[in-house]
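Handout, page 2. Input:
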Amino acid sequence: MADGRHCGLTEVDEDSVTAFREWYDNKSTCSGHPWEVCRGGNSTHIALYVFDTEDGWKLRLAGSSKGRVVETIKMALALYEKKAPFILGKAEEILRMIKGIDNIGIVPETLIPVYYHSLFPDGDRINYFMNLGYEKTEDKTIGNASLK
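Output:
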């Protein structure tokens, strides 16, 4: 459903547990994005991962980019309403985003504002980065005062 790099997942017999297990265990055949359900870049796609645990198969929904968070929340609500057990990746960060209390990392103008988590403390839970904008001001005179 995302960008076609499904690594053969769409060809697995959906009624065969054995076929899925064989596909899942054969990691050497995959260098694509089989879990991507909404296309995007490295940090802007939405993925619905399946992973195996001692307790059985689990789902993990991931999509915390500023531009995709609303879609991710709608998907999480749909999974919840269907009583599908899943883990929401970066749940705390997503909650802070929708409450409008998230932190944004301000990086120097010389940096493209992505992937700078290491510049900030982990406890800040920064999920989005930006450069500060520049305001162009003109000299203005009011009475005898000059404002810049």
